[in-house]
């Protein structure tokens, strides 16, 4: 079916073939559309045109159309992307574009998934612990430490990295034990923060990274880094340093001795 909108068409308009997944938690399938494409358009424009002209009840989540809200995440020809930042010129005109919802999260409807897994994982990471005796506004840190945090804080919470990571993408059963790259990056950011007083408060972020957030599941494939629309070097700058710091902790003789004593105390029982 041709869907040309006539007046809006420019000399370089063409008709593209789209296959869009439609359905809900009970199942669904790919639906074919032929739809007009104009100069400068992105995949989200085309999804909106399908919505406007052929499938008014097509569900799609978006907000800013500027790559900043992280809402329009989907998979285009199997690759996780922001639809609003994916130019139609990235594809050949005769190529059929297949748009499907994020695979790692449950479908609500059409291209909209339930990403609450990520909110749960966010809540499991204890926040910044303010340094005792330093008033807010008097915090001082080196520029190199500021820059490191700034990189991680560019995150727009699109969850493309979470969706891509093979640890959960094909293994639903790992979701309980694995926080995913975005939240391991948060742990790394806090562990490397020079003012974070977690250790003084009795919180060992390196231990929790291993034992509660599943750092050991990550085998540094860098797939998360490859899809990050903010270009954050998740693996090189967060996950690998966090692994090194967790390993340092494990092989630190004082930590080793402390854990031996704790284990012996626990084995002896309270009455020993
Ligand atoms: S580097 Fe680690 S967190 Fe990132 S995709 Fe690979 S296994 Fe997952
Ligand atoms: S780290 Fe990158 S890919 Fe992951 S949620 Fe943040 S912006 Fe998205
Ligand atoms: S609509 Fe906001 S990132 Fe795409």
Automatic annotation (TrEMBL):
This protein's UniProt keywords: 2Fe-2S, 4Fe-4S, Iron, Iron-sulfur, Metal-binding, Oxidoreductase
Pathway: Carbohydrate metabolism; tricarboxylic acid cycle
UniProt keyword RNA-binding, yes or no: no
InterPro entries associated with the record: 2Fe-2S_ferredoxin-like_sf, 2Fe-2S_ferredoxin-type, 2Fe2S_fd_BS, 4Fe4S_Fe-S-bd, Beta-grasp_dom_sf, Helical_ferredxn, SDH/FRD_Iron-Sulfur, Succ_DH/fum_Rdtase_Fe-S
Keyword Iron: yes
GO CC list: plasma membrane
BP GO terms, sorted: respiratory electron transport chain; tricarboxylic acid cycle
Domain 2Fe-2S ferredoxin-type: 16-103
NCBIfam families: dhsB, PRK12386.1
Family in the record: Belongs to the succinate dehydrogenase/fumarate reductase iron-sulfur protein family.
Name assigned to this protein: Succinate dehydrogenase/fumarate reductase iron-sulfur subunit
């Amino acid at each position: 079916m041709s869907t040309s909108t006539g007046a809006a068409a420019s000399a370089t308009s063409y008709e593209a073939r789209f296959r869009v997944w439609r359905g809900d938690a009970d199942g669904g399938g790919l639906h074919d559309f032929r739809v007009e494409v104009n100069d400068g358009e992105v995949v989200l424009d085309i999804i909106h045109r399908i919505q406007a002209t052929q499938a008014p009840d097509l569900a799609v989540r978006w907000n800013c159309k500027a790559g900043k809200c992280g809402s329009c995440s989907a998979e285009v020809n199997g690759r996780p992307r922001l639809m609003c930042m994916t130019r139609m010129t990235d594809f050949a005109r005769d190529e059929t574009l297949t748009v499907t919802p994020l695979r790692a999260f449950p479908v609500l409807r059409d291209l909209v998934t339930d990403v609450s897994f990520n909110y749960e994982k966010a809540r499991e990471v204890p926040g910044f612990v303010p340094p005792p005796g330093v008033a807010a506004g008097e915090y001082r840190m080196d520029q190199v430490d500021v820059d490191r945090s700034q990189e991680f804080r560019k995150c727009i919470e699109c969850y493309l990295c979470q969706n891509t990571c093979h640890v959960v993408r094909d293994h639903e059963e790992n979701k309980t034990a694995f926080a995913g790259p975005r939240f391991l990056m948060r742990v790394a950011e806090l562990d490397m923060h020079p003012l974070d007083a977690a250790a003084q408060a009795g919180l060992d972020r390196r231990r929790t990274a291993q034992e509660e957030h599943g750092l050991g599941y990550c085998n540094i494939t860098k797939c998360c880094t490859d899809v990050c629309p903010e270009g954050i070097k998740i693996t090189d700058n967060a996950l690998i340093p966090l692994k090194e710091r967790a390993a340092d902790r494990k092989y630190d003789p004082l930590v080793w001795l402390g854990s031996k004593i704790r284990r012996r105390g626990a084995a002896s029982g309270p009455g020993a």
